[in-house]
Design a protein that fits this description.
The chain is mainly alpha-helical and about 200 residues long. It has one domain. Helix content is about 85%, strand content about 0%. It is built from eight helices and no strands. The N and C termini lie far apart (about 35 Å).
């Protein structure tokens, strides 16, 4: 397995998925629910997100190729989309939604758009597009699985996490991750412009 690709993907995915932030939102949606319901929702959200990210990451580029979209154009547009996401992470207040105790929140809002939203899907395609070797693709897939496993653990212990971090800690982390994501987005845009070939 390509260790460099794994670490690069792990860092990028950690920043954009933000397992701690996702867990705090999960807690706000399921705080009054039974433990079994919370566990089922967490596992379903992570499984749906994992399948979506790996499939879209592997075959999204081919889909865009059939549509006549160059991968470097995707890097630029994806970078802009990630920068927009990062800008919102830094400048906007954290919004907490409310849901009924009996609602199935695994697909919406937990999987899409929280864990595997447009920004994460774009990042997944870009990460897989950077490597053509099997070891690289395994590294990116492993990074996705690792981050989603961490997200699952955070969601399962989100009640305790909320007490430790609190709203202020979440705000600080979100803005810090937003700055890192902005730098990553600019790098994607730079790579796209450099390689597009005028």
């Amino acid at each position: 397995m390509d260790t460099t690709a794994y670490l690069h993907a792990l860092t990028a995915l950690f920043v954009i998925i933000d397992p701690i932030g996702a867990a705090l939102i999960f807690n706000s949606l399921t705080g009054d629910c039974a433990k079994k319901h919370r566990t089922v929702m967490a596992v379903k959200a992570v499984l749906i997100s994992g399948v979506t990210l790996i499939l879209f990451g592997n075959y999204g580029e081919a889909l865009f190729g059939h549509l006549g979209i160059n991968i470097n154009s995707l890097r630029i547009s994806g970078g802009l989309l990630l920068f927009y996401t990062a800008f919102n992470m830094v400048t906007k207040a954290t919004g907490i939604m409310s849901a009924s105790n009996s609602d199935d929140i695994s697909v919406y809002p937990m999987s899409i758009p929280m864990i595997s939203g447009p920004g994460t899907l774009t990042l997944s395609i870009l990460l897989f597009s950077h490597t053509t070797e099997l070891s690289g693709k395994l590294a990116v897939s492993s990074a996705i699985i690792s981050i989603l496993a961490l997200t699952l653990v955070c969601m399962l212990v989100s009640k305790y996490l909320k007490k430790i971090i609190g709203k202020t800690g979440d705000e600080i982390l979100k803005r810090f991750f937003g700055i890192i994501l902005a730098a990553l987005a600019i790098q994607f845009i730079y790579d796209g412009i450099k390689n597009i070939g005028f």
